[in-house]
Amino acid sequence: MKRISVIGAGTMGRGIAYTAAVSGFTTILNDISDENLTKARDYIEKTLETSVKKGFISNTTCDEALQNISYLSDFSESVKEADLVIEAVFELMELKIDTFKKLDAACPTHTILATNTSTMSPTEIAAQTSRPDQCVAMHFFNPVHKMKLIEVVRGLDTSDETVEKVLEVGRKMDKECVEVNEFPGFVTSRMNCLIGNEAMNMLMEGVSSAEDIDKAIKLGLNHPMGPLELADLVGLDSRLKNMNYLYETLGEKYRPSPLLTKYVKAGRLGRKSGRGFYTYTE
C-alpha cells in the first residue's frame, strides 16, 4: 500500500491528502474543480509550514510531503496506479455510488475502494461495483491531521484482507483504528448526531444560550468541543443530511431539530458560510 488517491478536495479530502503525504504515501488529490484544487494546495502548504514552525513535523518531513503529493483534475489519471482510493465527496448516496462506479471502471483490479462517510452504507455503495470484497468505509474526523481516530467499517462483503490492509494504512498514518460492523451511523456519528440534535432543541426551547450549552458540555462532560461548535465546524447542511439519513433508517429519535432545518434554509451553514450557531469573521 504505497499509492493513495483521494477523490474530493473539500475539507475532509484535503485533510486526508495532507495526512497521507506526511505519512510517506505517494498521494494524488483529485477534484473536478481546479479552483478547489488550488484552495486545497494553499491549505496543505500553509498547514505544513505551520506544523514545522510549531515543531510537529521536521523540515525533512515537510519537504518529503511536498514531493509526495500531486493535484489532478483528470479522474482516470488520478487513480490509474492507486493501491487505495479514498472517496471524500459530498454526503449524498447517489453521488457516492456514481463515484464508486467510475472508480471500479478506472482503477486497477487490486485497488481497495474506501468511502469517507460518517453515516452511509458501505454495503450499498460496494454493491454497485464488481469488487464488493475490496470496498470499505474509512471514517476520518475533522481536522484530519489532529484527530487520532479512524472508524473502519465493514460492509457485508468486505474481506478480512481488505480490512487488514486498511488498518495498516491507518497505523502508518499514526491513527488509532476501531473496527465497526456496518449499521447506520456507525459508532461516533450515531452518538454525536443525537447529542448535537438535543443541543439544538434545547437552544430552540430557550433552555440556555449556545455559548452556555457548549460550555456546559465541555466543562461538565469533558468534551473538547461543544456540540453546537462542532456542528458549525462540520457544516449544518452536512449535519442535516446525516440526520435525515439516520431518521429514515433508525427512526423518530433522530428526527432533525426544526432549528437545524431553519438555519440551513436561511443559508446559515456554520463556519463555511460565516454564520451558524455562531458568527465567524476572517
TrEMBL record:
**SUPFAM superfamilies (UniProt xref):** 6-phosphogluconate dehydrogenase C-terminal domain-like (SSF48179), NAD(P)-binding Rossmann-fold domains (SSF51735)
Tell me the ranges covered by the 3-hydroxyacyl-CoA dehydrogenase C-terminal domain, including all copies. Answer: 185-280
Q: Does the keyword Protein biosynthesis apply?
A: no
Question: Gene3D superfamilies in the record, alphabetically?
Answer: N-(1-d-carboxylethyl)-l-norvaline Dehydrogenase, domain 2 (1.10.1040.10), NAD(P)-binding Rossmann-like Domain (3.40.50.720)
What GO molecular function annotations does the UniProt record carry, in alphabetical order? (3S)-3-hydroxyacyl-CoA dehydrogenase (NAD+) activity; 3-hydroxybutyryl-CoA dehydrogenase activity; NAD+ binding
Q: What is its EC number?
A: 1.1.1.157, 1.1.1.35
Keywords, alphabetical: NAD, Oxidoreductase
Q: Which GO terms describe its biological process?
A: fatty acid beta-oxidation
Q: Does the keyword Calcium apply?
A: no
The family database entries (Pfam families) matched by this protein are listed as: 3HCDH, 3HCDH_N
So, what pathway does this thing act in?
Answer: Lipid metabolism; butanoate metabolism
Tell me the residue numbers annotated for binding NAD(+): G8, A9, G10, T11, M12, G13, D31, E91, K96, S118, N142, K272
Which part of the chain is the 3-hydroxyacyl-CoA dehydrogenase NAD binding domain? 4-182
Q: Which InterPro entries match?
A: 3-OHacyl-CoA_DH (IPR022694), 3-OHacyl-CoA_DH_NAD-bd (IPR006176), 3HC_DH_C (IPR006108), 6-PGluconate_DH-like_C_sf (IPR008927), 6PGD_dom2 (IPR013328), NAD(P)-bd_dom_sf (IPR036291)
| Important for catalytic activity (site feature) positions | H139
So what family is this one in?
Belongs to the 3-hydroxyacyl-CoA dehydrogenase family.
Q: What is this protein called?
A: 3-hydroxybutyryl-CoA dehydrogenase
Query: What is the species listed in this Swiss-Prot or TrEMBL entry?
Result: Heyndrickxia sporothermodurans
